[in-house]
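Q: My collaborator sent me two sequences in one message, no labels, and asked for predicted structures for both. Can we handle them in order? The first one she listed is below.
A: Yes, handling them in the order given. First sequence, followed by its structure tokens:
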Amino acid sequence: MNKVNLLSELQSIYGAQCQICNRVGANTFISLIPLQVIRYARNLNKRKNRRHKRKLPEIANYQINNLLPVCNQCQVKQFNSDIYKLISLHQLEVIDKQRQKHGYPELLAAGNIRTLHRLLINKDNHI
């Protein structure tokens, strides 16, 4: 699925406003779990020469329940930042209400990126 279709589907779920600064005009999206973490898990699971293998959860790069619509300025702010440090608790509650309507895991219930990563694995919300 291309990014335009992803953005239109995200806007149908969350609305056309940026989920971080609440400005109208969310024209891009961010990953709740950074793509670097997803790629690291994928590469670590491919290694064959490890003694103590620990299978890390893998998700698709652009899984719809891992994305939030944002504006360009907020995308730059979030580049290597944790979503829990970037967004206030009140904003997380508002986002969670919208996520619950579609059956996605709650951000506040997870509490951190690692737990959210595991919660997203248990849901089969791939596109």
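Q: And the one she listed second?
A: Here it is, processed independently of the first:
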Amino acid sequence: MQFSSRTRDLHDGVVARVQAMGFRIDRLDAGNGLIVLLVSGRLSGEHVDTLGNALRQESGALAIDLKNVSLVDGDAVQLLALAESNGTELKNCPKYIREWVNRERAARHGEN
């Protein structure tokens, strides 16, 4: 499997990582202290770790915009549910992802 990759510091550049395999995070300053991570492509596998690392680098008001996400897996849904539980807003969340995140949060809530 061959792919190209370009990586920049999330705080200095706009693009966090671009891969020919179809994943990208753009860090946008929405004003009023809100940072939006615009996620595009397939959020699965190693990309879940990349998003998790990006989330850990941020402080303050944070949102994840999912309008350009084409696919998620179970690990991605777990991360999104946890992020939302910790106060991160999920913007433009496709209905199937929203339903899956809600089920994941309900299952987690049932465990506690």
